[in-house]
Structures are given as structure tokens and as C-alpha cells.
């Protein structure tokens, strides 16, 4: 089955660009996430981390 898929994929022109595009999307997303984590303010991180612990009576 894998030989059939591999052989079929090799006949498509320009198929090599799709793995490159997906790698770039993956890298850009996680690089942006990494940058956001290290540049986020400590107050914002503290506020968001305490959200599950807030005692709001919504009943």
C-alpha cells in the first residue's frame, strides 16, 4: 500500500512544496508561541493562572 501511495505521489508535479510549507507553518506557529510566552507580562500570567481558583457564585 505504501509503495502505491509513494509511487503515485512522485508523479505529481510540485508535491515537494507541501512538506516545506507545512514545516514553515509549524515552525512559525511555535516560534511565535515561544516568543509570546517569554514576553507576556507577569501580571497577565498570574491573573490567568488564578482564574480557575476564583470563587464566583453564579447560582
Give keywords.
59 residues; mainly alpha; 3 helices
Question: What do you see in this structure?
Answer:
This protein has a domain at 17-52. It is built from 3 helices and no strands. It has helices at residues 2-10, 17-39, 42-49. It is elongated and about 60 Å long.
* Residues in helix, %: 55-70%
Main beta-sheet annotation: none
The tally of strands reads: 0
Gross morphology is: elongated
Number of H- or I-type helical stretches: 3
Q: What pattern of helices and strands is seen along the backbone?
A: HHH
Structural class: mainly alpha
Roughly how many Å apart are the termini?
57 Å
| Cα Rg | 22 Å
| Uncertain runs | none
Mean pLDDT: 86
Beta-strand content bin: under 5%
Blueprint of the fold:
Elements: H1 2-10, H2 17-39, H3 42-49
Amino acid at each position: 500500500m505504501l509503495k502505491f501511495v509513494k509511487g503515485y505521489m512522485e508523479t505529481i508535479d510540485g508535491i515537494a512544496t507541501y512538506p516545506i510549507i507545512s514545516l514553515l507553518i509549524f515552525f512559525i506557529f511555535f516560534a511565535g508561541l515561544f516568543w509570546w510566552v517569554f514576553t507576556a507580562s507577569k501580571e497577565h500570567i498570574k491573573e490567568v493562572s488564578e482564574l480557575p481558583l476564583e470563587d464566583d457564585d453564579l447560582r
